[in-house]
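Meet the record:
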Amino acid sequence: MKVDVLLGLQWGDEGKGKVVDVLTPRYDVVARFQGGPNAGHTLEFGGHKYVLRSIPSGVFQPGGVNIIGSGVVLDPVLFAQEARELEKSGVDLRKILRISRKANLILPTHRMLDAAGEKAKGEGKIGTTGKGIGPTYTDKISRNGLRVGDLENNTGKYAAARDRHLQMLASMGCPADPATLADLEKAWMEAVEYLLTYELIDSEYEINEALEAGKKVLCEGAQGTMLDIDFGSYPFVTSSNTISAGACTGLGVAPGRIGDVYGIFKAYCTRVGSGPFPTELFDETGRKIRDLGHEYGAVTGRERRCGWIDLVALRYAIMLNGVTKLIMMKSDVLDDFPVIKACVAYKINGKETRRVPFDIDAADIEPVYVELPGWQTPMTAVKSEAEFPARFSEYVAFLEKELGVPIAIVSVGPDRTQTIER
C-alpha cells in the first residue's frame, strides 16, 4: 500500500480541513505531518462549525486512527484546549488519537521569543501567528528541542531549554517577567499532564505497519506550498516543509510509498500576513471577494488579502508536489462576477515568464491576465457536475488545460455535503 497526501497549493487557507473530512471515510489512518497550532482547518456539518489546529481532520469519522506526526510542533496548552472542546462535542478522542514521541514541544518561552523576534524585525516582520512555532523549529534544527517522548522521563531538559531561552530574551532586550512566566509554566505543566493521558507512539513504525497490513493512510498537510521553508516566498514563509516531501520527513514514509497527491486550491487567491502576492487586489473587487468568501483567519481572525487566481504559482506548486488530482474550493464565491481573471504569466522587466522568480518579493511583477466570462449562477445548491452552468464548466476546462492535472473535486459551499466529485 501507498500513502496518499493532501495539501494546499497556495498560501494556506485553501480549505484542507473540509476535504480531509470528506475523504476520510475511505481511509483507515489520517496523519498530520508538519506545522503547528498556526493551522486552522475548518469543518462544517450538521449546523456546527469546528476549527482544528493541531489535531488531524479525520477525528469526526468513526472507526479510524488519527496521528499527530513527528514533523508537527505541539503546544500542550493549545492542544488541551482543542482536545477538551472536541470531547465536549462528543468525540471520544483518546480512542482514536495517537501522538508521536518525536514531535517537538512548544514551550512558553518559545512564544516569548517569537514575539521578541517579530518586534526586532520592525517593518520587515514576517507576520507570524505569534504561537512560538518558528523558535520551536529553530530549536529542533539546532538540536536543542524538547520532544513529546522526553515527557515520559523527567530528564531536566525542560528547565535547560527554558533557561537558555531566558538568556536569549535578556540579550534581545526583552527579559521575561517572572510572574508572567510562572503563570504560563503552571498552565503548561498542567496541560502536559493532560497530554500524557493520550497514547504516545513511535509513529513511523505505526504508519509503515499499517501500510504493510493493507490499510489506507492519508497524510494531511498544513499551511500551503507557497509557504514552504525551502520553495515558498522566502523569507515570508512558515518554518516547515509544506510540500509532499514533508510527508516523508514528517511521518517516516519512504518517497516510493507516496501514492496520490491531492492538491487543494481556491478559485481565487488569499494570503494572511506579510509577503509577496502578485495578484493581490486593493480595490472593491478584492473587498468583495473577502466579504463573500468570509476571508478571515480561522485561528487569528486577521483579514486575508485577496486576489485573482495565480496560475504561475499553481503550476509551480503542482510541479513541486507531483500533484495527481486537483481540488477546487470556494468556486461559489465567484458566482456574482461578470468577468473572472486568471494570471497566466508574469511580466518582469518587460519580459514575460511562466516561472516563479528566485526572489518573488524583490521582483517587480506585473500579472498577465486572461479574462473569462463569469457564470453568474448560484452554485451552492448544485448537487452534481451535470448541473454546472456552461460557463463554469468552461472555467474548469480552462484551468485543467493550463495546469495539466484533472480537477477531481469541486466545492460549492462550506458544508461537507456541498462537495462534488467529477
